[in-house]
Amino acid sequence: MNLSNLLRRKLALLLVLMTVFSFPGSTYAYEYFTSWYGNNYEFRSGISSGTYNISHAPKAYNYNGHTYDFYQVYNDALWKWNYKSNSNISTKDNSKTGKLNFYASNYGNNGYYGWVHHYNWDGSRAGSTCLACGPKTDWDYANSALNAYEFDEDGYTSYGYLINVAEHEIGHMLGLAHENDVPAVMNQHSWDWSIQKDDVNGVNNLY
Ligand SMILES: [Zn+2]
């Protein structure tokens, strides 16, 4: 076998691999709550307006020898989403319920670093009531919680871990479900990724 044949074989194999792995999921892989419940669900009034309330996220929360600036973590994570995607929920109003509301505390040993609940304006949950379930209908506002207990329990107390979860939870707030097959902040099996192209595509294509 001469060199040119060898190269051709390698190229052929490469083309086969590219065909297999680029089809059909590479243009998008993000998941919506449709994958959990059968419909796409989103903010009823979109993501190009609306206030957020960050007053329930403490700036210096002390737990078990660590001090957490949950206010800064959420603020940075929201800024990233607003900067990278079509989300523009950028007006802070701490006097009332916003479209996005951020909480953090010691919620005890419940197995979650963070979670999101979706609500209707009358205060009822948007279709499902378990701790970390997606909504079953469109929603008017969403609340996110970060749990100091679990971060501490597993030693993930640094800013990098906290903002990774905050970005992930905001992804849920905007309408994304878990996506575990590609690099994505919505990938629940890794701390490695901030907001990725796949996450941005998912949000932008939903609204
Ligand atoms: Zn999640």
TrEMBL record:
Residues 1-29 form the signal peptide. GO terms for biological process: proteolysis. InterPro entries: MetalloPept_cat_dom_sf, Pept_M10_metallopeptidase. One of its GO terms (molecular function) is metalloendopeptidase activity. Keywords: Hydrolase, Metal-binding, Protease, Signal, Zinc. One of its GO terms (cellular component) is extracellular matrix. This is Matrixin. Residues 136-207 form the Peptidase M10 metallopeptidase domain.
